[in-house]
Amino acid sequence: MSFLILLLLGVCGGALGGMGMGGGTLLIPLLTLAGVPQKLAQALNLLSFLPMSAAALAVHAKNGLLKKDALLPLALPAALFSALFALLAAFLPARALRTGFAVFLLFLSLARIRSFLRGGEKGRAAQKK
Amino acid sequence: MKTRKKANFFPRFHKLFAVKKIFSLLFAGGAAGAVNGLFGGGGGMIALPALERAGYPVRAAHATALAVVLPASLVSAAVYFFGGVPLAVLLPVSLGVTAGGLLGAALLPRLREGLLSVLFSLLMFAAGIRMLLP
Fold first, then answer.
1. Measured between alpha carbons, how far is residue A67 from residues A53, A79, B46, B54, B83 in Å?
2. Residue of A26, A81, A106, A127 to mutate, interface with B, max B Cβ within 10 Å
3. Do B50 and B67 lie in a common domain?
4. Strand, helix or coil at A36?
5. For residues B116 and B112, what is the distance between their CA atoms, to the nearest angstrom?
6. What is the DSSP string of A41-100?
7. Nearest one of A34, A61, A113 to B114, comparing CA atoms
8. Residues 6+ apart with CB under 8 A from B59
9. Are residue B47 and residue B73 in the same domain, yes or no?
10. Are residues B80 and B91 in the same domain?
11. Predicted ipTM of the assembly
């Protein structure tokens, strides 16, 4: 896999991430379709988004956008379960992870389209807050 | 009857930190972490709607979702890292992601979010179908 192709795939995934669209969900399929093994793509996605999200988070914290009362009940179980399921992923066959991720993507995209179609008004009202 | 009495006893508490809300946040946090660990990403896509449903404004929800996913990603990245990640691959990808991230953040105010979101969803759908095929 050439340096340039990997760099370009990273730019595509990162650009979507920077727009707050969940670039990680697109970087993984981009990498795997280019021939990177599933588990390596997952590891790459996690590792490469750390520096960027840390930088973005520092800006958000400065702007007072972090809601502390919601942060703790979300972040604690998230950290716990992500460790457990990362260990589980190490023992699962790559094929199963790929299929599971594909289903997750389909589910997410349908949920998004659905909320876009019915929530035009509601979404705009929420934006104004 | 009993529950109603409790709700009246702590009216302010009930309003601000409704028990139901806490439980739904805990559950969403667990689900976000599980997805993030298992699939190496995507936890934010679960934390974000949970925060929006809990009534936080969009920008605060985005920022807080990021703060939820970062520690979770850190933990699972450590687990994955011990599985072995070649530096020759990690380097170009993370350089690209960082550059792309800056690009995306700069472009964001100039784009129409609704249209972009639908395009992105269609792309995700296509990627999902493609990944189901051998």
1. 17, 17, 17, 11, 34
2. A81
3. yes
4. coil
5. 6
6. HHHHHHHHHHHHHHHHHHHHHHTT---HHHHHHHHHHHHHHHHHHHHHHHHS-HHHHHHH
7. A113
8. A65
9. yes
10. no
11. 0.83
Distance separating alpha carbons of residues A68 and B23, to the nearest angstrom: 16
Residue B90 and residue A48: Cβ atoms within 8 Å? Answer: yes
- Flag the least confident range among A102-106, B3-7, B22-26, B119-123: B3-7
Mean pLDDT of chain A: 85
Q: Does B97 touch chain A (CB under 8 A)?
A: yes
Which domain, by its residues, includes A34?
3-128
What contacts B120, CB < 8 A, 6 or more positions away? Answer: A16, A21, A26, A112
Mean pLDDT within A1-23: 81
The domain in which residue B72 lies consists of: 1-85
Give how far the C-alpha of residue A113 lies from the chain's centroid of Cα atoms, to the nearest Å.
17
In chain A, the number of structural domains is: 1
